Every structure is written in structure tokens, then in C-alpha cells.
Amino acid sequence: MTPLTPNARICHYLAIASLIGLIALCMAWETALAPLRPGGSWLMLKALPLLIPLFGILRGKRYTYQWASMFVLFYFTEGVVRAWSDRGLSASLALGEVILSLVFFFAAIYYARFTQSAPATSATVR
């Protein structure tokens, strides 16, 4: 991995923190804080797909940042719907999901932008 610029490093750590936070929030929400049914619900499994990009994000793989930025929009959508339709603690947790998914989205987009290689010029491409 090449050395990161300060902006890319900030985006990298923001993405890591927000992704881990989103995983923890999804698990805690559906198991203990405000599950759909007392005792927890199977909806806690929604956190499992977030583990797929985690290792690529931890390693700073640009390609993972690119596709994970689109992938996290599912969680943004769920958060918006549940913030609008749920009441009480569940609505607050949904708002937290929206915020964490937006932080991850923008951190991933800007990380990909800050780490892109210089475009090839026509003189070097033959």
C-alpha cells in the first residue's frame, strides 16, 4: 500500500470507525436495545453483510471502497424508512444508522477520490 495523503488517511479512519459502528449498532439494535420482538429478532443478521467489505476497508483497498460506498446505501434506506415509521428508541437508532451510513458513504467516496492514480496521457498510451 502506498503512503496515504493526510486527507486520504482521515477518510480511511472515518470509514473504518463508521463501518464498525454501523455493525455494532445493527447488532445491538436488534438483539438488546429495541428488537422487533422481545428477546431479539432475526433481523440482527442484517449486520452480517457489513462484514464482507470490512477486511478490504481495513486494508485500504480502493476497489472495496468503491463498491462498499454503493452497498451501504441499503442501510441508509432502511434507516430512513425506520426513522420515519418507528417510534421511540427504535426511531433514534434508525437516525443513528442514517448518520453512520452517510459518514461511511462520504468517507469512502473521498478516499477513492484521494487515492486515484493520475490519468494516463495520450503520449504514454500506445
Descriptive overview:
The chain is mostly helical and 126 residues long. It has a domain of 88 residues. The protein is 67% helix and 0% strand. It starts with 5 loop residues before the first helix and ends in a 12-residue tail after the last helix. The model has no long low-confidence stretch (mean pLDDT 91).
Q: What labels would you give this structure?
A:
126 residues; mainly alpha; 0% strand; elongated
Helix content: 55-70%
Percent range for β-strand residues: under 5%
Major sheet attributes: none
Let me know the number of strands.
0
Ranges with pLDDT <50 over ≥5 residues? none
Chain-averaged pLDDT: 91
Specify the overall morphology. elongated
Structural class: mainly alpha
Compute the CA-based radius of gyration. Answer: 17 Å
State the order of secondary-structure elements, H for helix, E for strand.
HHHHH
* Spatial gap, N to C terminus: 28 Å
Counted by DSSP, the helix tally is 5
Topology:
Blueprint: H1 6-33, H2 51-58, H3 62-71, H4 73-85, H5 89-114
Helix pairs in contact: 1-2, 1-5, 3-5, 4-5
Briefly say what this structure is:
The protein is mostly helical and 126 residues long. It has five helices and no strands.
